[in-house]
Amino acid sequence: MVDRRWHLLRANAGATRLTAFLTEPSPAPAPTGSVNLAEWLLSPDGVRPYLVNWQDVAIHFLRGVQADAIADGIPETTDLLRRLLAYPDVPTLSPVPSLEGAQPPVLAMHLRKDQTSLRLFTTIATLGTPQDVTVQELRIECFFPADAATAQVFKDWAATTPR
Predict the structure, then answer these.
(1) Is residue 4 part of a domain?
(2) Total domain count, the chain
(3) Could you tell me whether strands 116-125 and 109-113 are parallel, antiparallel, or unpaired per DSSP bridges?
């Protein structure tokens, strides 16, 4: 679960296992503050080295953050977008998102580390009619295997993860 500006609030065992796969072995200590998944995605020290189709994923993700910044008009969202665009080699965005070109219905993220290759797609759910305004800011993201090989890796991980 993340907030409106992609700060990680809660993760299940599957998300923790995927994160461990992407970050281990790591001599760096665990972060003491809030983890921002947007920055982790675009930072050269985050997921970027493992994303085979990083450019496509980065553009898609940045357009989403750009749309949020335009829609909510909150300085924190605009600041997040500015920080993300400042990372080295991050693609530039037009001030107005392009509507040209047919886009596939799903953009699969292709992650590769060592001999393991994962293809995932994600869904993000928000509560449309919350009774509490703070719940309106939450996003629940779920990752799904986009092919049989990735599904098998996830099954193997589930079988070896302590409960």
Answers:
(1) no
(2) 1
(3) antiparallel
